[in-house]
Specification:
Blueprint lengths: L3 H7 L6 E6 H46 L8 H22 L10 H24 L5 H29 L3 H53 L2 H48 L3 H12 L1 H6 L5 H14 L7 H15 L3 H24 L1 H53 L4 E6 L3
Parallel strand pairs: 1-2
Length: 429
């Protein structure tokens, strides 16, 4: 039922009121409208409630009168038995059903809603009892059951009438209040995010200033004589490391072509019972060829290669014709390389590398630079964390702003669906 119900009730003319409300005034206006409409509904329902309770009392009186009546003598014996069985259940069912609302006359709107819910249950229950326990009672008590049925029907009609009054457009105001509360929650959340955003931006600004100071301090450090000497030493160290890597690559390339024949020979040696020492030496060169070569002071590699060559030439260690020639050539080439000279080159470069490392660590500026770089790296991580948090807040704020905008549009649509009003809201964030 729309507001025109109240227009007819109170003799108002249908006149549209234009309202411009600030958002902080809207809740108060809606609450006043809800209270006003609840008062109107309560007043309109009062005479109807009185009539309902009269109906309930009359149904109860009719039911109690029915309880006192004796079954007429003219009722057939079989039907009489059914009537006598059904009547107590019918009477008790009616009385129990009505007990839900008996002496519970509503005094306010909230009680009115609860009363209507209970009344619907009572009306439904009366209908079910009439079908179940009251089916055969008209045989003996036709007039009495008809009177109860008429009153029950009247009660049903009044329940529907009550529903129409209670179900007026008060729900529009309540829904509008609910939407407004949701918008307020969103705005409060948005305000909290703005505070978080401001704090993060302030923190980021502080970190940026600290980073700038650290970078200036590092730049100043770079201008010192000691740092320039350190830089020169580090350049020398870099050159030595590159030479070391070159020598190690040379050693690897020297041994790598021999790994495949050594792998095959290992199986052969194990079968032929060559002993654990040579198997161990072959495994070492297979797994860590460079380290094994540099630590080889007993000419283990030369011994392995000579045994492979001897076994091939003796025909014991058989290889395909093409492979046999290649392997023998590689072994011959490897045996002609000055291994000691290669190791000495590596030893000299490694010693130089260690000396240069010690020298770089001896500079006091080294530790200072490391400390500044650690601080700078830590600041970088903190700034990245702040930036990531800011991105999350930005995205969340955009979503909330979108939800808020849609919520406002929906609320204004609801407000303008209230008959008799044209409402514009001035939103204040």
């Amino acid at each position: 039922m729309k507001l025109d119900f109240f227009d007819r009730l109170f003799g108002r003319e249908k006149k549209e009121s234009s309202l411009v409300l600030d958002s902080d005034e809207l809740a108060l206006w809606l609450e006043r409208q809800v209270k006003s409409r609840r008062d109107e509904i309560r007043k309109e329902c009062k005479p109807l409630i009185d009539e309902i309770f009269i109906d309930l009392e009359e149904i109860k009186t009719l039911t109690l009168d029915l309880e006192e009546l004796e079954c007429p003598k003219g009722v057939p014996k079989k039907a009489r038995k059914i009537v006598l069985t059904s009547k107590p259940a019918f009477v008790q069912g009616i009385l129990d059903s009505m007990a839900m609302v008996e002496d519970k006359k509503p005094s306010g709107y909230d009680e009115l809603e609860k009363f209507h819910e209970d009344l619907q249950v009572v009306v439904s229950s009366l209908g079910k009892i009439a079908i179940s326990h009251g089916r055969y009672l008209p045989i003996a008590f036709g007039d009495e059951i008809e009177a109860i049925r008429r009153k029950s029907k009247k009660l049903f009609e009044r329940s529907k009438e009550l529903k129409e009054i209670i179900g007026s457009d008060i729900s529009l105001f309540l829904e509008a209040l609910e939407r407004l509360d949701e918008i307020k929650v969103k705005l409060k959340e948005l305000k909290g995010l703005d505070t978080d955003k401001s704090n993060l931006q302030e923190k980021l600004k502080k970190y940026s200033e600290e980073r700038s100071n650290l970078e200036k301090e590092i730049d100043s450090l770079h201008e010192t004589r000691e740092f320039k000497e350190l830089t020169k030493t580090e350049e020398e160290l870099k050159g030595v490391r590159e030479k070391l890597e070159s020598v190690e690559l040379e050693i690897y390339n020297y041994i790598n072509p021999l790994k495949r024949p050594m792998k095959k020979f290992r199986k052969f040696a194990e079968v032929k019972g060559y002993g654990p020492e040579i198997l161990k030496n072959i495994d070492g060169y297979m797994q860590n060829p460079v380290d094994c070569f540099l630590l080889d002071k007993d000419e283990n590699l030369e011994n392995i290669l000579m045994k492979i060559r001897k076994a091939i030439e003796a025909g014991d260690f058989k290889l395909k014709g093409k492979d046999r020639g290649k392997v023998l050539t590689r072994i011959e080439s490897a045996l002609n390389i000055d291994e000691d000279k290669l190791r000495q080159r590596h030893l000299k470069l490694n010693s130089l590398r260690e000396n240069l490392l010690k020298r770089t660590e001896s500079f006091s500026v080294t530790e200072k630079r490391k400390e500044l770089e650690r601080d700078l790296e830590h600041l970088g991580r903190e700034m990245k964390t702040c930036e990531d948090e800011l991105d999350k807040i930005e995205k969340k704020s955009e979503n909330i702003e979108g939800d808020t905008s849609r919520g406002r549009e929906e609320l204004e649509r609801k407000l303008n669906s209230i008959e008799g009003y044209k409402i514009k809201v001035n939103w204040k964030d």
